[in-house]
Amino acid sequence: MEYILLIIGFVLLVKGADFFVDGASSVAGKLKVPSLIIGLTVVSLGTSLPEAAVSISASLAGDNGISLGNVIGSNIFNLLMVVGISSIILPVVTDNAVLTRDMPVNIGITAALLVMLLDGNLSRLDAVILLLLLAAYMFILIRSALKNRVEEAEQKLLSWPKSIIFIVAGAAAIIGGGQLVVNSARTIAITLGMGETLVGLTVVAIGTSLPELVTSVVAAKKGDSGIAMGNAVGSCIFNILFILGMAGVIKPMNAEGSFFIDTAILIGVSALMLLFAITKKRTSRIEGAICVLIYAAYTAYIIMRAFGIWIF
Predict the structure, then answer these.
(1) What's the confidence (pLDDT) of residue 44?
(2) What's the chain's average pLDDT?
């Protein structure tokens, strides 16, 4: 039964995020907000809502393993699997702005998170710093977008009542789905003796990253693989700054030692993706396959670590 509830929770998260983004984008369009700004704010935050719902719910419940593991695990999955699978379908081209601004920012804030976790917890002060960095990053994005505005295509908007219904229904589905995922994942972890950290880094992280994976794979199949890298890197940045910032402000989180290792691995993965992107400004099919293999090796490592087969 818990597995069914977990799947239902994931479905609610993914579809709730879709409804919320559609409704919010329509409202923003009616208010004449530039579509580029909508993409950089509403849509970017919208794709991070599943992770936010799970991590904040887990933080309130005191399940730090799921909360932190979800963010770190989702970021590793986004970079290795989302970009990796997309690259195998069609080599991922990296936009110059993503290469010179977003990827270095991602490495920098992940390194900052590593420093914050040195004392074994993410305090409210740390969380406030993350939110301030988010505000600065959003300011830079919006200023850049306004400086480089292009003629916008006319978009089909929802009616006001439908927009409000989409926003409310989407938010309700996200909140309800987040609760289902956290509660069922906790029960499964206890039943299987897996531990909340392992569940957060694997099952929950992969489940909440489904919107990014589906979006990037569909784009790659349509021949627009360039969206994959921006989607993955942007989600990583929002996951750390927005989700951990909000969760940490609500309730400070204790972080076990293994999270320090996982965050260090995330920095290494982020640097590797930057290296791949620098070469010809794209990630090739071979590099994509390497990413998938690295994720498989990382998954095997954390499973062995959780069960004491290999302690590092």
Answers:
(1) 65
(2) 85
Q: How far apart are CA 182 and CA 177, in angstroms?
A: 9
- Which residues, 6 or more positions from 148, have their beta carbon under 8 angstroms from its beta carbon? none
How far apart CA 11 and CA 19 sit, in angstroms, is 12
C-beta of residue 282 within 8 angstroms of C-beta of residue 98: no
Average of per-residue pLDDT across 111-126: 94
Cβ-based neighbour number of residue 5 at 10 Å? 17
Beta strands in 50-124 (DSSP E): 92-93, 121-122
Q: What is the spatial distance between Cα 143 and Cα 97, in angstroms, rounded to a whole number?
A: 13
State the residue for tokens 């309800």.
176
Q: How far apart are CA 50 and CA 37, in angstroms?
A: 21
d(CA 24, CA 17): 10
pLDDT, tens digit, 9 for 90 and up, residues 163-221 = 889 988 988 888 888 888 888 887 887 787 778 788 888 888 888 887 778 777 777 77
Q: How many other C-beta atoms lie within 10 A of the C-beta of residue 310? A: 12
Provide φ and ψ at 93, rounded to 5°: -85, 140
Residues 6+ apart with CB under 8 A from 8: 177, 180
Structure tokens at 55: 């991590």
Contact (Cβ atoms closer than 8 angstroms) between residue 50 and residue 174: yes
Burial class, 71, CB count within 10 angstroms (exposed 0-12 / middle 13-18 / buried 19+): buried
pLDDT at residue 297 greater than cutoff 70: yes
Written as six digits, the tokens of 237 are: 């940045």
Closest by Cα among 289, 284, 221 to 91: 284
